[in-house]
Amino acid sequence: MDRAALLGLSRLCALWAAVLALFPCGAQGNWMWLGIASFGVPEKLGCANLPLNSRQKELCKRKPYLLPSIREGARLGIQECRSQFRHERWNCLVAAASPPGTSPLFGYELNSGTKETAFIYAVMAAGLVHSVTRSCSAGNMTECSCDTTLQNGGSASEGWHWGGCSDDVQYGMSFSRKFLDFPIRNTTAKESKVLLAMNLHNNEAGRQAVAKLMSLDCRCHGVSGSCAVKTCWKTMSSFEKIGHLLKDKYENSVQISDKIKRKMHRREKDQRKIPIRKDDLLYVNKSPNYCVEDKKLGIPGTQGRECNRTSEGADGCNLLCCGRGYNTHVVRHVERCECKFIWCCYVRCRRCESMTDVHTCK
Ligand SMILES: *[C@@H]1O[C@H](CO)[C@@H](O)[C@H](O)[C@H]1NC(C)=O
Ligand SMILES: *[C@@H]1O[C@H](CO)[C@@H](O)[C@H](O)[C@H]1NC(C)=O
Ligand SMILES: *[C@@H]1O[C@H](CO)[C@@H](O)[C@H](O)[C@H]1NC(C)=O
Question: According to the UniProt entry, where is the signal peptide (predicted)?
Answer without folding.
Answer: 1-29
